[in-house]
C-alpha cells in the first residue's frame, strides 16, 4: 500500500490512451514481421547477401514492431503515428519486393498484406497512399541497384510466401474478430444503458405527473376549504341576524315586563324576569362574540378610527366597570398619567377590550383590588399608550396561561361552570389590539393574581380636528401578518 | 314631550320599543315600511325618527336620503337601527344622512342616551 503510493508519486504521468488500431496492429505486426524475416532470409541466403542487408532485415523483422508501438503509444496522436508507420512499411515492402526481384509470390504477399491492413485500418485513401509508397520503395531500390526481375523463386521461398500470406490473414482475421466482439459487447452495454436511461426517464416523468396531480388536488382542497370557510362565515352572519331578531323581542319584553311588574306591585316576579333578561343578554353576547370572530377570520372586521381623549375613555370604562368590580366586594384603583392626551383608534373596540379585561379581573377576584393603569410610554420602536389591568385574584398556572388566547378555551371546564363567560373575550380583545397595531400580553402567578397589559401605538397623538372622520382599514393585510406569526393557528 | 317616529316592519320590535319609549314619556307614531315612514315624517312632523334600515317597499337608507332631501323633514334628527352586524350599516347610514346609529337588540339606556343627545343638538340648532 505504502510502496504503491510512493511509486505512484514518483512514477511518470499516466500513459496516454492508445488507439485500438495501434493495439490491434501490434501483435499482428510482431508475428507477420517474423514471417517476413523468414521469407527474406530464404532469399538472402540463396543470393548470399552481405552483412548490412542481414542487419537491416533483423532490425526490421524483430525490432521494428516494438519500435512502432512504443513510438505510437507515446505520441500525442497514436492513430496518426500508426498510419505513418503503415505507410513507412508500404515503402519498405516495396523495396523488399524489388530486392526479391519482383518474384510473384513474395511481391503478391507483401502487396496483399499491406494493402489489406491499410484498407482495413485507414480506408481507401490510406490504401492508395500505401500502394503509391510501395511503388516508390520499389522504384528507389531499382534506381539504386538496377532492375532485376525473376518471376520464379525457389520452392522454399514459394512455400514460405504461401505460409506468410496464410499466417497474415489468420492473425489479422483473429485480432479483427477480437476487436469486433469488443465492439459488439460495448454496443450491447450501451443499449442496456439506454434502456435503463429510458426507464429512469419514464420513472421521473411518472413522479412528476404524480406530483402535478398531488399539487392539483391540494389546490382543489384549498379552494374547497376556502369556499367552506366563506360559507361558514356567511352562515354565521345570517344565523346571527336570524337569532338576534327574536332575541330582541325576548330581551325587550322581559325588560318591559320587569318595569311594569315593579310599577304594578308584582315585585315577586321581578327576579325571574331579570333571569330571563340576563340569560337573553348572555346569549346575545355569545352570538356577538362568535360573529365578531367570524368577521375577523373572514377579513371583514372594520375599524372605525377616530381621534379621542384617552382620559374620557378611561372615565367611561371605570364608571361602566364599577358595578362589576363591586359585585365580588373588590375595590377599583385607577393609576393614570395626569395628561394622557389623545389617541387615534377604534374607541368602541378599545372600550370593549378594557371592559373585558376588567370584567375578567372582577370575576376571578374576591375581596381584592383591581387596578386600572393608563400611561404613555416610549421605547426604541416608538411611543405607546399602555393600559394595564391587574388583580389580586386566583391567578393562573403556566399551563393555563398557554391556552389563554385560544378560541373557546377557558382555563378549564370547571372555570366555565363556576365563572361563566364565552371563552372568546380574550381572543377578540387580542385581535382588536392587533388590528390597531398593538397587542396584549399577560403575566400571572397562581394564587396571587394576574396582570394584562394592552399596548397601542400612539404615533398620532397630536393630530387635531379629526374626530369625525371615519377610516376603513384593510383587515386582510393585518390578519395576514398576524396569521403568519402563528402558522399553527390556521 | 318629544314626538318620535318609529319606522320598523317587525311587529314585535315595533310594539315592544314603542311601549318602552311611551313608558319613558315619549309620544310615539309608528310606520311599518319606508313609504309610510316618509309620509308620516312629512305629515306628523316628529322631533326625531328611529329608522330601521332593513325595511320593505323603500329601504331605510333611501328613506334617510329622501328625508334629508325634502325641505320640511331636513332638520329632523334620524337614528338608524340595524340588526345586521356583518355589513357596513353604520358607515352607510351616516353617509345617507342619519345622525346616529345603534344596533338591535336595543340596549334601552344606550338608545335613550343617543335620543337625548340628538334631541339636544336639534333644539340647540333651532334656538338661534
> Which range does the strand content of chain A fall in?
5-15%
Q: What is the strand content of chain B? A: 15-25%
**Main beta-sheet annotation of chain B:** 5 strands, parallel
- The count of β-strands of chain A is 7
Q: Radius of gyration of chain A, rounded?
A: 54 Å
Number of discrete domains of chain B: 1
**Number of E-state strands of chain B:** 5
How far apart the termini of chain A lie comes to 62 Å
Short key terms for the protein model shown above:
heterodimer, A: 490 residues, alpha+beta, Heat Shock Protein 90, 7 strands, rod-shaped, B: 128 residues, alpha/beta, Rossmann fold, 5 helices, globular
Brief summary of the model shown:
The complex is a heterodimer of chains A (about 500) and B (about 130). Helices cover about 70% and strands about 10% of the residues of chain A.
Describe this structure in words.
The complex is a heterodimer of chains A (490) and B (128). In chain A, helix 3 runs antiparallel to helix 4 (78-99) and helix 7 packs across helix 12. Mean pLDDT of chain A is 81; it is low at 1-14 and 461-490. The two termini of chain A are 62 Å apart. In chain A, a hairpin with a 3-residue loop joins strand 6 (439-445) and strand 7 (449-457). Chain A has 490 residues and is an alpha+beta fold. In chain A, the strands form two sheets. A five-stranded mixed β-sheet of chain A has the order 2-4-5-7-6. Helix content of chain A is 68%, strand content 10%. Chain A contains 13 helices and seven strands. Chain A has helices at residues 2-10, 20-47, 51-74, 78-99, 104-145, 155-263, 270-297, 310-327, 347-363, 398-402, 413-419, 425-435, 475-485; strands spanning 306-309, 331-336, 342-345, 369-379, 382-391, 439-445, 449-457. Among the domains of chain A are: 20-153, no CATH class; 302-479, 2-Layer Sandwich (Heat Shock Protein 90), CATH 3.30.565.10. By secondary structure, chain B is an alpha/beta fold. Chain B has a single domain (3-126), classed as 3-Layer(aba) Sandwich (Rossmann fold), CATH 3.40.50. Chain B contains five helices and five strands, in the order βαβαβαβαβα. In chain B, strands 2-1-3-4-5 form a five-stranded parallel β-sheet, sandwiched between helices. In chain B, helix 2 runs parallel beside helix 3. The chains are: A alpha+beta (490), B alpha/beta (128). The interface between A and B is medium-sized, with 25 and 20 residues.
